[in-house]
Amino acid sequence: MSTPSRVYAARLVGLPIFDPQGEQVAKVRDLVVAMRTEATQPRVLGMVAEVFGRRRVFLPMTRVTTIDSGQVYTTGLLNMRRFEQRSTETLVMGQMLDRTVTIKSTGVTGTVFDVAMERSRTRDWVLSRVAVQEPAKGLRRRGQTHIAEWDDVTGLTRHDEGQGATHLVAAINEMRPADAASMLHDLPAERRTAVAMALTDERLADVLEELPEDDQVGILERLGSERAADVLEEMSADDAADLIAELPPETAEILLDLMEPEEAEDVRRLMKYVENTAGAMMTPEPVILGPDATVADALAHVRNPDLTPALASLVYVCRQPLECPTGKLLGVAHIQRLLREPPSTLVAGALDDELEVLRPDATIDQVAAHLATYNLVAAPVVDENRRLLGAVTVDDLLDHMLPANWRDRAASTVIHHE
Q1: Sheet order of strands, 329-334 included
Q2: What is the pLDDT of residues 27-66, one digit of tens each?
Q3: CB of 270 within 8 A of CB of 282?
Q4: What is the pTM of this model?
């Protein structure tokens, strides 16, 4: 494999990083450069790499042996110390995209949407070219794009007070929510706010669910009450309840009043339960069907792409009403069992009606033991009248069992493959 002479930063993000034995050890998340003068090409110091547990570490370019179209190879040595950006360093994706610049030779002004790096005569990697997009004119949806030499562009080294977030948002929208959350977490506070403001309510809700509580609260506080309420409505009720519980009581009440009544009601109900109990962890929106539903009906419901795999694993058959809290829970149907049944048959004929249920006051240890005992990834939570209140999933359980700073922990300081 040979490394191309020029590599664009946006195409690097998300690529797997392999050691010499062909084992994936990380993913590329950003490039770190040392900015000097506008006339001097910045040296690429290394990559921000994401290892297991969404931990960000620094991979020096001296450790990178090969870059090709689909992967990056290293010497096999990764320092597992968390990446801390220095004041002399700039993140290409996090800080350079969307800067307003001018191409000196043509006078064209636009925003940066990508930069290219290449090897210099000294074998160092340097930023050599800048991809610039002009503002849209007339009926065009997008402005013209230009590729300029680094020294033909001004505005790259100065702080841009009006820096937008269009191109960074576009990059984040291509990522999984967990990966987008990691990138957002690592941005400077002002930049993080600008990006959060530019994301759609639904996308921001997905990303917020993956962020640490401090980041969630910080972003929500900067959104303004109306927008914050809209984003909370898009979050799953249990995640929204956890987040609102971290806010001052008066702020929480304002946001709940601004939310749609049905959404707010679900959140208020979850907030009544003691922290780290089944009631506080559960989602009030599992797949609920009546006793007359067919297997085809059940399969159509679990195909909903908004369902997590854990929530899609069980269908809950209840008497009316079919919204939590429901009528009496008749039983659950395992999706694996339903796949073996004719589509026209009733779900009620394939019920597991002997599955033990959880009470809302079950402790986190009791929930964990329950899922482990019955080899489940989700379980029903019912009240004293066996009305379904919600479902606890294994991902909800892990969110509450892992320590708050679990992403910052690492068992060792160095991974070294011989």
Answers
A1: 288-289, 314-318, 329-334
A2: 999 999 998 777 789 999 999 998 876 788 999 999 999 9
A3: yes
A4: 0.68
Q: Return the CATH class of domain 199-272.
A: mainly alpha
- Under CATH, what is the fold of the domain 6-85? SH3 type barrels. (2.30.30)
CA 112/CA 114 separation, integer angstroms: 6
Dist. CA 167–CA 358, nearest whole Å? 46
d(CA 162, CA 164): 6
Q: How far apart are CA 172 and CA 193, in angstroms?
A: 14
Cα–Cα distance between 165 and 200 in angstroms, integer?
Answer: 13
Q: E-strand spans in 19-61?
A: 24-34, 43-51, 55-60
Give the pairing type, strands 314-318 and 288-289.
parallel
Structure-token match 């991902």, residue found: 395
Pick the CATH number of 288-400 from 3.50.50.60, 3.40.50.720, 3.30.450.40, 3.10.580.10: 3.10.580.10
Determine the residue type at 373. Answer: T
Q: How far apart are CA 117 and CA 41, in angstroms?
A: 9
- Match 């033990």 to its residue by tokens: 356
Q: Are 38 and 151 in contact (CB under 8 A)?
A: yes
pLDDT digits (tens, 9 = 90+) for 116-125: 999 888 888 9
Beta carbons within 10 angstroms of residue 131's beta carbon? 20
Q: Are strands 414-416 and 77-79 parallel, antiparallel or unpaired?
A: antiparallel
- Whole-angstrom distance, CA of residue 356 vs CA of residue 313: 16
Identity at 19, one-letter amino acid code: D
Looking at residue 170, its amino acid is: A
* Distance in angstroms (rounded) separating the CA atoms of residues 398 and 407: 13
Radius of gyration of the chain (CA): 25
Residues 91 and 8: beta-carbon distance below 8 Å: no
Contact 287, 315 (CB under 8 A): yes
The tokens describing 255, both together, are 């946001």
Q: Residue 79: beta bridge partners?
A: 414
Domain residue ranges in the chain = 6-85, 199-272, 288-400
Helix (H, G, I), strand (E, B) or coil at 362: coil
- Residues facing 153 on adjacent strands: 103
